[in-house]
Design brief:
Layout: H1 26-39, E1 46-50, H2 56-63, E2 68-73, H3 76-89, E3 94-98, H4 101-107, E4 112-117, H5 129-135, E5 139-149, E6 161-167, E7 170-175
Parallel strand pairs: 1-2, 1-4, 2-3, 4-5
Antiparallel strand pairs: 5-7, 6-7
Length: about 180
Amino acid sequence: MRIISGKFKGRRISPPGNITARPTTDFAKEGLFNLLNNRIDFEGIDVLDLFAGTGGIGIEFVSRDCSSVISIEQNDKHCAFIRKICTELKITNLTVIRTECLKFIATCHGSFDMIFADPPYELSQIPEIPDLIFKHKLLKPDGLFVLEHSSKNNFENHPNFTDHRNYGNVNFSFFENK
């Protein structure tokens, strides 16, 4: 896993063997961030990274000078790995919270400029995630929510859906407040 751009560009992050997360592929991550570069100004935004896994996406946002990144992950080993990488890279604006993501969504009182969610593809509640994000008003008025999912999910009929992109087996659906 490598950091695509920003102040940590080119750094490689190698998760240990006990990490069970499926990191977003470098190919898909590069495609996503190329799209995001044309849509948002990263500097100074607040980001929520749900189902953070290895932390690669959150670190990409930090590398691009986002103000803060909150990474939500349930697995202790994954959280420890993200914290270890933050210590190694001297990252101080990424906070790891160990909790179940859907529970966090329901109890969070903040709002974010950018929300990224990469749930396990087999999670049965994937279709509910966009509704929960908008129900709990986690996205700022001009914010962007990106959901990574498999090809078996289709969000084109969701009222906040704006775009879909596919990179191999990785699908990204984009949502905005309307």
